[in-house]
Amino acid sequence: MTRDEVETNYNKLLPILGNAFKTAPLFFPLGEDSEYYELFADVSQSEFQKSLDDFMLHNKAEWSVSGYLENRATILRDFPQMVTEGRYYHLGIDINAPCGTKLYAPHDCEVVVSKYEEGAGNYGGVIVLKCKKEETPFYMLFGHLNPGKLPPTGAHLKKGDTFAEYGNMEQNGSWYYHTHLQILTQKAFDDGWENKGYCTKDEIATLNDYCPNPFLFL
User: Fold this and answer.
1) pTM higher than the cut 0.85
2) Which of 61, 77, 145, 172 has the fewest other C-beta atoms within 10 Å?
3) DSSP state of 139
């Protein structure tokens, strides 16, 4: 993902955030080649959060976006479930915003997953919404949420309904404040990819069938 791609497509995210932000986001890549590598390398998540907050304040930004298919070997170094399998390539985009940021349904949809994943490096509160695009079903996964603010599985949401909010580090899998937005096709959902926020290098070639780039899909 590039800065130009974010600047061209970020407006697609605004309904999800209730149009709360009036300025464009910064592009803040978290891959191995990031220009901001020193801010997240060899630091804890809480230290990174402070650096990110300071960076946003310095740049007078309200929010930022981190990218699809970034190789995040460094930021995942402390999570053995990723290291063992070599799952370093990010399958969604991260919308980085303050703890407590609310999320809104971008379409009429059904909640098909609403749960809490315990453990550092996992999703914490996570929800999957079943939506339709030209009558074809697809799924939107949001992770790192406050588990106490999620609707139950089976709930039906109208476009614009509030359905979740960002969790703190005790709720969101011990991550900095953000939500992971991932698109899943029907095939991906049927094959259990709602449990995979990262893939291996060998799986990248299959992603259009499983987890396409959210900016290009939405």
Assistant:
1) yes
2) 77
3) E
**Kind plus residue range of the DSSP H or E element containing 148:** none
Express each pLDDT in 182-215 by its tens digit.
Answer: 999 999 999 999 999 999 999 999 999 999 999 9
CATH 2.70.70.10 fits 3-217, yes or no: yes
Q: Outline where the chain has alpha helix (H).
A: 3-9, 37-40, 45-58, 80-83, 186-190, 207-210, 214-217
Task: Find where tokens 């999703």 sit.
Answer: 123
User: What are the Cα distances from residue 93, in Å, to 19, 58, 158?
Assistant: 18, 23, 23
DSSP state of 144: E
Contact 103, 155 (CB under 8 A): no
Cβ 51 vs Cβ 64: under 8 Å:
no
Tokens found for residue 152: 């139950």
